[in-house]
Amino acid sequence: MTCENTTxxxxxxxxxxxxxxxxxxxxxxxxxxxxxNGVRDIVILEREGATGGILKQCIHNGFGLHRFDEELxxxxxxxxxxxxxxxxxxxxxxxxxxxxxxxDRRVVAVSPDEGLVEYVAGAVVLAMGSRERTRGMLGIAGSxxxxxxxxxxxxxxxNLRGILPGREVVMLGSGDIGLIMARRxxxxxxxxxxxxxxxxxxxxxxxxxxxxxxxxxIPLRLSHTITRIxxxxxxxxxxxxxxxxxxxxxxxxSEEFVPCDTLLLSVGLLPENELTRAAGIAMDRRSNGALxxxxxxxxxxxxxxxxxxxxxxxxxxxxxxxxDRAGESAARYLAGAEGPAGSADVVRVVPGDGVGxxxxxxxxxxxxxxxxxxxxxxxVYKKATIAVVADGEMVKTFRRPIVLPAEMESVKLPVEAFAxxxxxxxxxxxxxxxxxxxxxxxxxxxxxLPEGAVAHDLVCISCPVGCMIHAVEQDGKIVSVxxxxxxxxxxxxxxxxxxxxxxxxxxxxVEESAMPASVRTERTVPKRLIPDVLAELRRVTxxxxxxxxxxxxxxxxxxxxNVVATKDVx
Length: 570
Hints:
9 helices, 5-stranded parallel beta sheet, 570 residues, alpha/beta, 7-stranded mixed beta sheet, single chain
C-alpha cells in the first residue's frame, strides 16, 4: 500500500541519488558513509533548525567512547558528526518537514524557504529518530494541571533555554533521560523527591542509577507507580501506590499522597515511524520499527532504516554505527546491488524465550561475512546463556554474567553457520531469572572489622554486570574487596572509596544571548567538590563568540582542571 500526497506541488520534482530523512546522529552518519562509498548527490532533510537531533540538549558526558575513543558531551558529539558531513559538502536542508513517503521513493517535504517540494530519490535512508511516551498513553487518573512534562521536554527547558521547570519534583519511569534529568535538576537547585518505576527493574543504565540517583540520595522506588494526579492550575501532588509483581497492577490500599509541583515522565521511547507505515513498509510489532535485512534494507527496495527509528538504542555510538551501515548499503544499492528484505530466499530471525525483539529480522542466504544481531531482553537474567538455534539445531551459545533490558545486547555470527536454515531463533536461558542486579546481596562483611576500619557497600559501574562490592578501608587504604567478579572491581572500589571522581556538566550565562553555553570539566574532579564547582561557574558570564572546545574557565576550584565549552554560541 502506498500513501499518496494529494496536495498540489508547484514545479518539477527534484531528482537526487540519496535522500536522508533526519539529521540526527544516524542520518548524519548515513550521509557521510554513503559519500565515502561513492555517492555524491545526497541531501539531508531535517525538520529542526540545526542538525544533531536530541544530542543538542544532552549536555551531560558519556558520549563517544566507542566512536571517538573519548568522552564527550552530547552537543560535542553532534558537532563531530555534523563536521564530517560539512567536510564532504553534503547538502543539508534545515527547517524542512517531510510530509509523505511512497514505496517508490518519492518524498514530499515543506519548508519556509522552498515551500512544498517533491524529491524523487534513487535511495532513501530513514533516520527520523524517536519520541517520548506521554501522559495520554499512560491512562493516569486525575486533573490536567500545569507542571507535567516528559523528561525530554524538561531537558529542553533546562539545557537549551535555562528554564527550571519546577522545584519539588517526582519522576515516573527510570529511563536514562529521566535519571540524567534528576541529577540536572538537583544541580539547578530543585528537590527531586523520588523516582518511581512500575517494573521490578530499572529502565536505565546502572552507571546512571549510581551517578545520578545514588550520588544525590534520590530514592528509586521499584514496583511503584502513580495512580492519580492532583491540582487545578498547577500540580499539587500525586498518589503513589505499590505494584503487585504478579498482576502488574497497583495494590489497593497502598496509596500515599506525595506533594509536588512537577511530575516528569520517563516512560520509554517510540520509534517515529509514521512515514514508514504510510509508505506501506513492513513493520515489526515487537521493535516498533521496520522489518529489515542484514543490510538494513526494508521491504521497499532502496529504502533503508537505521538508528532509533529502527529500534531504541541505549548508546548513540551504536546509532552512528548503524547509520554507517545504512549509508554503505544505500550506496551499494545505487551501484546495482539487489536483495530487499521482502525477498523469499532468506532466513527468518525470531526472538525466543526471554528476548523482546531481534534486528535484523531476515538474513539473505547468499549474504557474505558476519551478521550482527542486536536485541533486548524482557527481564533481568543472571548467569545468562544466549542460545542461537537454526531450525531446531544449536548453532552457538554465548555466556553473559548478566543481561538487562536497559542495555542492548548483540551477537555476531557468520552467515554460513545458518544459511541452510529457514528460521534462526535467539533465546535466553539463565540460572536465575527476574532478580534485579541491585537486589543481589552484597558480600557479607567480616564478622568483626579491625579497629579503625570502615566498611563500604558499592555497586560497581565499570561494566554492565553491576557487582555488589564490599570494601573495607583502614588508615586511608583499601584492605579487602569482596563481591567483584573481575579485576576492574578492585580498581573501582579503590577509587570510589578513597577519592571518588566525577565529570561536571552545566550551563554558563553568555552576555547578549538568550541561549546559555553548555560546558564540562575537561577531566573528572573530586565528587566532594561538585557543589563548589557549580557555585563557581554560576558566577561566570561569558562573552560571544563561544566556540565548542574553548577553555572558558581555568583551574576550577583549584583542582587544576579547566572547563571547556561543549557547543557554539555565536
